[in-house]
Fold this sequence. Notes:
41% of the residues lie in helices and 11% in strands. By secondary structure, it is an alpha/beta fold. Strand 1, helix 5 and strand 2 (118-122) form a beta-alpha-beta unit. Residues 100, 102, 153, 156-158 line the site of zinc ion (ZN).
Amino acid sequence: MCDKLEHPGNCDASGRRNFLKATSAATVLGLTGGVLLNESARADALTKAQRDKMTPEQIIEVMKEGNERFRRGERKDRNYLREQKASAKGQYPAAVLLSCIDSRAPAEVIMDLGIGDIFNCRIAGNTENADILGSMEFACKLAGAKLVLVMGHTACGAVKGAIANAELGNLTGLLAKIKPAVQATSYTGERSATNYTFVDAVARKNVEMTVADIRKGSPVLAELEANGTIKITGAMYNLETGAVEFFG
Ligand SMILES: [Zn+2]
């Protein structure tokens, strides 16, 4: 198995599969421009051949290994400038993430990923909406990403705000989308925004409910998951330990 997003040159291309069913749309969207580049020119970014032969489970494994490196204070010896140049004419990301805007949870950093490896949707409290679902459908159906990952985190300010019924401009409406998770969280202790155990339990429930909402709100993604093309799952990032816990 090739488990290195950053060393596509080490992987053979025999498993190449074409997920770009809507080729005309993909061309219009600029997703096929990199195909003509030779392998050596793309040695620093994820190639289509490498991405296409990976399973969703292998992509999760790459993320887990990257997070373990991050927690050890290590990082792959990557060159961002070369990754930028290698991916300029085409992108073949392996996953699309939905995570919080929190400044302490940048996915590429905490999972040691590079330019061109993942799509990112970021919104306070990592809840979905129609535009985010559209972005995920683009990422998976047209651009060939194989993993939809909703990543919440501990001590989330948006979750605290939802628990505390905070109100502020447009934030009020955003927090309302997290409130169903507050109600759905089973917890016998103090159900307050200052009880971090409860806050984290709500954040976890919020991820679980968002994953379910993605399946319910996007027949396109649900079908891709049902036929085994993609996997939709959740994760929690612990700000204290630096660990990303994958749900499945
Ligand atoms: Zn947050």
